[in-house]
Specification:
Jelly Rolls, four-stranded antiparallel β-sheet, globular, alpha+beta
């Protein structure tokens, strides 16, 4: 899932409210996975506190942070809504984090009660968010993506490593450090 909150194209509050009302409250320690790459992801959650990174190893085996979810955002591997599909990434807690989680099947059934096309619009929102995230990598400066991240989560540096932030921005740690130094001047 690609930073849905950034590219919110329709009202997901009924879904978030339903998951919070009917879901199970879970606490994850730093590094603990909500779902794992290559496995079925049986649940969808709403982050109540903390944050999660959507992580996948690159061709060298180094973890790359592809997406983030913070308070009031959804977590899970939505591709798993399709029969036989496995998660394409690990969803790891960045710090001690609390999530309201509900079975994916239950959430899909609920989506169909909201409106006949809700599931389609939800899928569109995810695809749109991934597309916009890809465009931001090609068309925005690293500085503007970093400022956007800080606006979204001002204290991100307190619970996300420099390596993970650099990975999310698509740069090296050194580039991130130099950029931060320039921005402080």
């Amino acid at each position: 899932m690609a930073d849905l909150k950034l590219y919110d194209v329709f009202d997901m509050s009924p879904l978030r409210d339903y998951i919070r009302e009917h879901g199970e409250c879970r606490v994850y320690c730093k590094g603990e996975c909500f779902c794992r790459i290559g496995e079925n992801a049986p649940d969808i959650g709403v982050v109540n506190s903390g944050g999660f990174a959507f992580v996948r190893p690159d061709y060298k085996g180094d973890d790359q942070t592809c997406s983030l979810a913070f308070a009031d955002e959804l977590v899970g591997s939505y591709i798993s809504m399709m029969p036989g599909r496995k998660s394409g990434f690990d969803v790891k807690a960045l710090c001690k984090s609390e999530v309201s989680a509900l079975a994916l099947d239950t959430v899909v059934e609920y989506m169909d009660t909201i409106s006949p096309d809700y599931r389609l619009r939800f899928t569109y929102a995810i695809a749109y968010a991934f597309m916009m995230r890809g465009i931001s990598y090609r068309c925005q400066s690293v500085e503007s993506r970093y400022v956007e991240l800080l606006e979204r989560m001002p204290d991100v540096k307190s619970f996300m490593s420099t390596s993970a932030i650099a990975s999310y921005l698509g740069v090296t740690r050194e580039t991130l450090s130099r950029m931060r130094a320039r921005m402080c001047k």
